[in-house]
Design goal:
alpha/beta, about 350 residues, five-stranded mixed sheet, D-Maltodextrin-Binding Protein, domain 2, Lysozyme
């Protein structure tokens, strides 16, 4: 009899606890599942002077973490009816630029995000939108607000700026991964600026994406599964740089020459650079120095050179690669002058 009563009591207690937890989840927005987010770039200037996508990405992750959730963030597709995805529950929040006019809609709730746009929730999640609005207000009042915000909105051309306390919003990550390479962190920052201008949403005509402009297959190989995630993209790019560097350690005369070869291969691919090295050797040049190899690159467009047995990848219009290496060093040198 006692045991039966105890079992009933435990069962009732468990049911009450379950109900309390369920109520708490309902009040907190429904679940601890990842917050499904989309960022719309409609109306925003591609490669503009502000890193609006990166800023919203940062804020959405911080807000989700404040509610004990992860954020899964994607870009809205071209022509996608993104607000319909919000209404049908496929998304929890959509980030829109102010340039998008949002007509009054009883099914949606909007809150202002700084001066850069709106977060939109469905009306069924009005409480959660309220949490987001309060969180953003508290964030704007915090002493860290200006420090965190400035690098996203005060992006600068290194060839024009006189001084700065930062290079990008991702300086701390760049420092960590530059140490992995044994590079000056400003050199890695210069590579990233050259590739993406620090836009996490950057995408090339060839399909390369992110801060380090990685092709999808390469990104996946080095563990980058989220194209917008800054750390994943930087880590994958550095993984590729480490792999490329190994191929020139027995060729380069010194660490600086090794870095130039690595950058050239990052831009053109190791096969193309090997063709250039082989042709420079064929001409009797000292291939331990990148400039000697770069000097023969204009010849790589000639049909007579492309048909030689030591050329495996055909004609190569490599002037962009020569300029790429030179430009990165130029940016690095400027960063040393303008940023402590």
């Amino acid at each position: 009899m006692f045991r039966t009563g105890a079992i009933k009591t435990c069962a009732i207690f468990a049911l009450v606890l379950f109900c309390l937890c369920s109520c708490r989840k309902e009040k907190d927005g429904g679940s601890s599942a990842p917050l499904a987010c989309a960022i719309s770039l409609k109306g925003q200037e591609a490669g503009g002077s502000s890193l609006l996508c990166g800023y919203n990405h940062h804020l959405l992750h911080r807000f989700a973490a404040s509610r004990g959730r992860l954020a899964e963030i994607r870009l809205a597709g071209n022509g996608e009816a993104i607000l319909d995805s919000l209404r049908n529950g496929s998304l929890d929040v959509v980030s829109l630029p102010y340039s998008d006019s949002l007509a009054p809609d009883s099914t949606l709730v909007t809150i202002s995000v700084d001066s850069c746009g709106l977060w939109v929730f469905r009306s069924a999640s009005a409480d959660y939108a309220g949490y987001a609005g309060n969180w953003l207000k508290e964030f704007r009042r915090s002493p860290d607000y200006a420090i965190e915000r400035q690098p996203y909105f005060d992006l600068y051309n290194p060839m024009k700026r006189v001084s700065a306390d930062f290079i990008s919003p991702y300086d701390s990550l760049i420092r960590v991964y530059a140490d992995t390479l044994g590079w000056d962190w400003k050199l890695l920052a210069a590579l990233m600026y050259q590739e993406s201008r620090f836009h996490i949403e950057a995408r090339s005509q060839a399909g390369a994406y992110g801060l380090m402009q990685l092709l999808p297959k390469t990104a996946r190989h080095y563990g980058c599964t989220d194209r917008l995630d800054p750390e994943q993209n930087i880590r994958a790019g550095v993984g590729l740089l480490l792999e490329l560097r190994k191929r020139y350690q027995k060729i380069a005369a010194n660490p600086d020459e090794l870095t130039k070869y690595t950058l050239a291969a990052y831009n053109a691919g190791s096969g193309r650079i090997l063709d250039c090295i082989n042709h420079a050797k064929h001409l009797g040049a000292d291939v331990s120095r990148w400039e000697n190899v770069a000097a023969v690159i204009p010849q790589m467009q000639d049909d007579s050179v492309a048909s030689m047995s030591h050329i495996k990848h055909g004609k190569f219009a490599g002037r962009e690669t020569v300029s790429f290496v030179r430009q990165i060093y130029s940016y690095r040198n400027r960063y040393h002058h303008i940023c402590p």
